[in-house]
Specification:
The protein has one helix at residues 5-15, and strands at residues 33-37, 41-55, 61-68, 76-82, 85-91, 96-98, 107-112, 128-133, 139-140, 142-149, 153-167, 170-179, 182-197, 200-213, 218-232, 237-251, 256-262, 265-270, 275-279, 285-290, 295-299, 305-311, 316-318, 323-327, 331-336, 341-347, 352-356. By secondary structure, the protein is mainly β.
């Protein structure tokens, strides 16, 4: 019979009423806790988990960290100033992280610097390479974080994988993720979202909004302010109820569909995909460019603009009076109404339609 001395010792201790704990408990993970970050510039770094960003009170940014996973006890939190920014960094001591919510067979990798920071102004080529997988061998640990932001703060949130949810933040907020969906609602001020891969949903934003995603769909609704900029390498862009001074959407591949737009300056560009835009007001400048795809523009009846349309393959159809100054097999120049604005539409392959509301 094989002896198990450790089990005999454990059994004896149990008889004596001594509590036994085998391995770290996620609930007792030393990374878990509440932290306060002062200063006007704050950054929070986490490799894996859910990050919730919400409005807060007082003068400091409050950060609640809940470590989880079988190896959560090995996570640590470091705080302190780095390059004039007060930071909180969740430290993962291993190079291979298992985050089950990522999904079996899924993985993401990027570089993490020695101080636990990544991405940002320092670029992504420094530090050790971290691999995050949904299953397999490695350190199974992650941290779910809630960040409470007082009004007027400048906060940056950096995440590897997981998800980010932002509600009712008033300030200057940057969300930078490797592979994660990002959802925001009720933001005021400057909102910048940068994701390598993942969908983005923006609701009820006032101020300046900039979204940049390497791959993933973007959905923006009820955006008001100076500027809305969306740039996606691959992914469709949907928008509605947009009232901004400047609207600029650029996608390498994917359709663009924006409705109820009130903006004097609109630029829509897609390498491949249809473009649909509904304008509620007259424009000073409208530029639409698609390498392949049809274009449909709905305009108010009192629109006035010089218009220039080019399509290598496809028809041109207007349902409003146009004073034509030049007409070719695949191009048209002319004037609508008072001609004070400018409209330029160019599609490599696809029809062009201008219709009134």
């Amino acid at each position: 019979m094989t002896a198990f001395p450790n089990l005999r010792i454990a059994a004896g201790l149990a008889v004596l009423g001594i509590a036994i704990s085998i391995g770290p408990s996620p609930l007792d993970a030393q990374a878990s806790g509440s932290y306060s970050l002062s200063g006007d510039r704050v950054a929070v770094y986490n490799i894996a988990g859910i990050m919730r960003v919400q409005s807060g009170s007082g003068s400091d940014v409050r950060v609640e960290v809940q470590a989880d996973g079988a190896d959560a006890g090995e996570l640590e939190v470091e705080t302190g100033g780095i390059r004039s920014t007060e930071t909180l960094r969740v430290i993962y001591p291993y190079d291979r992280i298992v985050y089950p919510d990522l999904g079996r067979g899924s993985r993401s990798d990027f570089r993490v610097r020695d101080d636990g920071t990544f991405f940002g102004d320092e670029g992504s080529r420094r530090g050790r390479r971290i691999l995050i997988a949904g299953s397999g061998r490695g350190m199974e640990a992650w941290a779910d974080i809630t960040i409470s932001v007082p009004s007027g703060k400048r906060v940056a949130v950096y995440l590897g994988v997981g998800e980010v949810d932002v509600t009712n933040v008033d300030g200057n907020l940057l969300v930078d993720v490797a592979s994660a969906p990002v959802t925001t609602s009720g933001t005021r001020g400057v909102l910048t979202i940068d994701t390598g891969s993942g969908s983005v949903e923006v609701r009820d934003a006032e101020g300046e909004v900039e979204v940049d995603t390497g791959s993933g769909s973007v959905d923006v609704t009820d955006v008001r302010g100076e500027r809305l900029l969306v740039d996606t390498g691959s992914g469709s862009v949907d928008g509605s109820d947009i009232d901004v001074r400047n609207l600029n959407i650029d996608t390498g591949s994917g359709r663009i569909d924006v409705r109820r737009v009130a903006s004097p300056d609109v630029v829509l560009d897609t390498g491949s995909g249809s473009v649909t835009v509904e304008l509620l007001t007259d424009v000073e400048n409208l530029e639409v460019d698609t390498g392949s795809g049809s274009v449909t523009v709905t305009v108010p009846e009192d629109l006035g603009a010089e218009i220039d349309v080019e399509t290598s393959s496809g028809g041109i159809d207007f349902d409003m009076p146009v004073t034509v100054t030049r007409f070719g097999r695949s191009s048209l120049q002319g004037r609508i109404g008072d001609g004070r604005g400018r409209i330029h539409i160019d599609t490599g392959s696809g029809s062009v339609r201008l219709i009134t509301r």
